[in-house]
Design brief:
With 226 residues, this protein is of the alpha/beta class. The protein is 23% helix and 25% strand. It has a single domain, classed as Metallo-beta-lactamase, Chain A, CATH 3.60.15. It has a 7-stranded mixed sheet. Strands 10-11-12-15 form a 4-stranded mixed sheet, covered by helices on one side. A two-stranded antiparallel ribbon has the order 3-4. It is globular and about 45 Å long. The protein starts with a strand and ends in a 5-residue tail after the last helix.
C-alpha cells in the first residue's frame, strides 16, 4: 500500500512498484505544498483511495506535473482524482498523449503559482525532455530521471542489471541508458548549471531519496557526461 512519507518541510513523497522491461525499478511521486496555497503533484503514481485521502488531508491539489516524456503513466488517474488541478507536461508529451487534457506546457519558466517556491531547468540534449525542480525553501532538488540511487535490490535480474552498470550502491545513470543523451555538450552545460544550485537533498523516481550531500553525489554520478 502506498503512503505519503515526509521528506522536508512541506514536501512528501509516495513510492510505488514499477517495472522497466523486466527490471523492478519502482517509481516515486513528490507532493509539495506551495507557499501561495494548494499542492503540486510531481510525477504521479497510481492513485489508491488511501493515497488520495492522505493527499486531500494536506490541502487542495492545484497542479499535476509530468516532468518528462516518460513519467506520464498515471497522470490520467491523477487528473481524474483532482479535476480542478492544472495538468502540466512538456510540449512533446502533449502530442504523445493526446488522450490527456493538458492545460499548460512545462518549460523552465515557473508557473506564477510556483515562482516563489521553485527554480526550474530543462535538461537539453537529452531524449527524456526532463525539467527538474529546485525547491528553494528546503534546498531540495526534485527530479525523475536525472540519476538513480539503489542501495540494494531483492529482485535478482534487477540486482544483476544494476551490478553490471556499476549502479548498485552508487548514484548514477546506467550505461545502457546513456544513449538518450544525444547532444552531450549541450546536456553537460545544463548539468553544470544545475550544480550551481545549493541543493542538499534529491527526491528522485528510482531508488532511494538522497538525504544529504546530494549535489556532490549528483556531480559524481553525472561525471561520465562529457
Amino acid at each position: 500500500m502506498t503512503h505519503l512519507i515526509p521528506v522536508a518541510e512541506g514536501i512528501w513523497c509516495a513510492a510505488a512498484p514499477q517495472t522497466f522491461i523486466a527490471f523492478h525499478i519502482g517509481t516515486r511521486m513528490t507532493v509539495v505544498r506551495l507557499s501561495g496555497g494548494g499542492l503540486l503533484l510531481h510525477s504521479p503514481v497510481p492513485v489508491t483511495p488511501e493515497l488520495r485521502a492522505e493527499i486531500d488531508a494536506l490541502g487542495p491539489v492545484k497542479h499535476i506535473v509530468c516532468p518528462n516524456l516518460f513519467h506520464h503513466l498515471y497522470a490520467g488517474q491523477a487528473a481524474a482524482a483532482w479535476p480542478q488541478a492544472l495538468l502540466h507536461g512538456p510540449a512533446k508529451l502533449h502530442a504523445k498523449r493526446r488522450d490527456l487534457a493538458f492545460q499548460a506546457v512545462l518549460t523552465d519558466q515557473p508557473h506564477a503559482d510556483w515562482a516563489a517556491d521553485f527554480e526550474l531547468l530543462t535538461i537539453e540534449g537529452c531524449l527524456l525532455g526532463e525539467t527538474v525542480f529546485y525547491h528553494r525553501p528546503t534546498r531540495t532538488l526534485i527530479a525523475a530521471d536525472l540519476v538513480e540511487n539503489f542501495k540494494d535490490a531483492s529482485h535478482a535480474p534487477t540486482r544483476w542489471y544494476l551490478k553490471l552498470g556499476s549502479l548498485l550502491g552508487n548514484v548514477g545513470w546506467h550505461p545502457l541508458l546513456r544513449l538518450v543523451y544525444v547532444q552531450r555538450r549541450k546536456a553537460r552545460a545544463c548539468i553544470d548549471r544545475l550544480l550551481q544550485w545549493p541543493f542538499e537533498r534529491l527526491v528522485l523516481a528510482h531508488g532511494e531519496v538522497i538525504e544529504r550531500d546530494a549535489r556532490e553525489q549528483v556531480r559524481q554520478g553525472m561525471s561520465w557526461l562529457k
